[in-house]
Amino acid sequence: MASLAAELGVSRTTVSNAYNRPDQLSPELRRRVLETARRLGYPGPDPVARSLRTRKAGAVGLLLTENLSYAFRDPAAIGVLEGLALACEDAGVGLHLVPASPGRDDVAAVHRAGVDGFVVYSVPDDDPHLAAVLARPVPTVIIDQPQVDGLDRVGPDDAAAITKLAEHLVGLGHRQVGVLCMRLGRDRNDDFVSLERQRTAHFHVQRTRLEALATAFGKAGVDWATVPVVERFEHTVDEGASAARQLLGAYPQVTALICTSDILALGALAEAERRGLRVPADLTVTGFDGIAEAERLGLTTVHQPVLEKGRAAGKLLLAAGEHVNPKVITLETELRIGTTSAPPRTMEEHWFGP
Amino acid sequence: MASLAAELGVSRTTVSNAYNRPDQLSPELRRRVLETARRLGYPGPDPVARSLRTRKAGAVGLLLTENLSYAFRDPAAIGVLEGLALACEDAGVGLHLVPASPGRDDVAAVHRAGVDGFVVYSVPDDDPHLAAVLARPVPTVIIDQPQVDGLDRVGPDDAAAITKLAEHLVGLGHRQVGVLCMRLGRDRNDDFVSLERQRTAHFHVQRTRLEALATAFGKAGVDWATVPVVERFEHTVDEGASAARQLLGAYPQVTALICTSDILALGALAEAERRGLRVPADLTVTGFDGIAEAERLGLTTVHQPVLEKGRAAGKLLLAAGEHVNPKVITLETELRIGTTSAPPRTMEEHWFGP
DNA sequence: TTGAAAGCGCTAACAG
DNA sequence: CTGTTAGCGCTTTCAA
């Protein structure tokens, strides 16, 4: 840039202005500057140097628990991403996806990210990447989890939402239920879950849902300690199926499988079919999220507006500074009763005969 | 950082080393530095300043033609994104999604992006954002389109791939065909496409496919000038249906609809059903891409490895500098004959009786 | 093992 | 409308 200014016989300010403040320059001079720039192969102001000077990176960072690439396999995550991208687009800022695998504790990528703020999507409360984000002096908005005091957050009222679902099942007559849930901590436990582990789960959303289920079924006289809960580290349809297999293998008397996500529920449905169980006649299956495929299959689930979730988080972050008090946005959820929930076999027989 | 160094009575270099070169420091001193940093609320080296100094941003930019958010609605685009994210993750660099709507000619976001290179995915050859990317002194890899001399590119051999498809249809006996294609330029033309527009399309992939179809059907004695081609700006299932409606409304004698993407083909199938046309008995429909839903429905299509496409582009970019000559990676495609293609009605009658 | 000096490339005041 | 001055916060020789 210096050499450009020299060549033109003007100051560097003028060159800078030619790019950033067209109104501070005669159009003629500006034209000359730009043309000379092209001739000399000057590519325009360096974005990094500009960011350093203006203290604006023009991008927001996104941190998520899963492998970056995995986010593109989960329809709910894609919805969140889309909403967030929408908000960024409206504001003309970039979306910087931070590479952060759950295994690798390499936090450097968080430190290296040149961003004006972070959106953190569904990470455990003890995630080192999260700690690294919070250490940075930029605003942060959390989607779903964890809950951090003093931080903006966007998410559904998980307890209320799943309570409605539980009441639906209780109303149908289910008392012998089983639960399939997503990972409860950073350590892998593809197995049944102790009460202790449920209580101390580092994924707040899962913990809350389990607690709310325990309360709701407790009111119906079910001792939660007797309810089998199976956890899966990977969040895929196949793992959902394997979890269902594990649970039903040990507790064949279960009449309803409550899954904390639609993905897991899809797997449970597949496993039910494999075992020759009719849904909902022999087994009730429920999900959570309301992804498109679940709706297509008529899964009973709790629908949440994932796109809106991402967009709200983006807006909140980009408006940061305008508000002082931390904001919490609670999204509306809706219990969608599909064709995968019905009274348990025994009740059905009780009502309608065998 | 200066104040930290002062407080500690050491130089700034030492503080810097504490973060970046642990081996250049006594562990004891390093511990002291880091602890004092915490106490004073020093958040660690500023990433932007560091980038300025090291000339490394630790991120790659992604430019795509569609609205950022739209990329999350197209399964093929999601696949590319996933592959690219995978490559970035492996290298520990961020993925910076550049906001660039097709309408808005606001190129500033490209200038502002602090990245070490760009991946450009499927943009028209006259896209101003592309020009802005090329003006920047960083390596660039193109996925699919456009073809730019001297630039790395990853994509399928579109001509060869669609020629196989055309030969399949010719072999079945189709001579009266219609084409549904994606946008051919930055201007909106939701209508039939003249030969001139086909020839001068700014989206190289679409142009190539049309040309290859013209050649293949020409060999079979079909005058391409008589073949109706309908274009759609938006790439959605609904638009595919509307395009099919427009084409079949004007050319009901058509026996096969060739769609340049699975998304459009899905719409064509919907429209066929709406009209009471049986597929493939009354109408043959083909796609391109091989997305999951298409496979599920048994669509005859050309499958391409979208994830691999994204990953290859990422690797190529991140290895840039190691090679001098521009590299072109051609991906394998596979014609997948499903249940949506069959001999045309008249031929079928000819062979099997009415 | 540590420190001093020298910028990376740019823009925001402010003065002319 | 244009130029001067002063850093933004950091890392990297090189010398001690």
Fold and architecture overview:
Two copies of one chain form a homodimer. Chain A has 354 residues and is of the alpha/beta class. Chain A is 45% helix and 14% strand. Chain A has 15 helices and twelve strands. A six-stranded parallel β-sheet of chain A has the order 2-1-3-4-5-11, with helices on both faces. In chain A, helix 11 packs across helix 12. The longest helix of chain A has 17 residues. The first copy, chain A, is elongated and about 95 Å long. The first copy, chain A, starts with a helix and ends with a helix. The mean pLDDT of chain A is 94. The first copy, chain A, binds a DNA duplex (16 and 16 nucleotides) through helix 2 and helix 4. Chains A, B: InterPro entries: HTH_LacI, LacI/GalR-like_sensor, Lambda_DNA-bd_dom_sf, Peripla_BP_I. Chains A, B: It holds the Pfam family Peripla_BP_3. Chains A, B: This is LacI family DNA-binding transcriptional regulator. Chains A, B: One of its GO terms (molecular function) is DNA binding. Chains A, B: Keywords: DNA-binding, Transcription, Transcription regulation.
Brief overview:
Two copies of one chain form a homodimer. With 354 residues, chain A is of the alpha/beta class.
Task: Spell out the blueprint of helices and strands.
The structure is a homodimer of 354-residue chains.
Chain A: H1 2-8, H2 12-20, H3 27-40, H4 47-54, E1 59-64, H5 75-91, E2 94-97, H6 108-112, E3 118-121, H7 128-135, E4 140-143, E5 152-156, H8 158-172, E6 177-182, H9 195-199, H10 204-219, E7 229-232, H11 237-250, E8 256-259, H12 262-274, E9 284-286, H13 292-297, E10 301-303, H14 306-318, E11 328-331, E12 334-336, H15 345-352
Parallel strand pairs in A: 1-2, 1-3, 3-4, 4-5, 5-11, 6-7, 6-8, 8-9
Antiparallel strand pairs in A: 10-12
Chain A binds a DNA duplex (16 and 16 nucleotides) through helix 2 and helix 4.
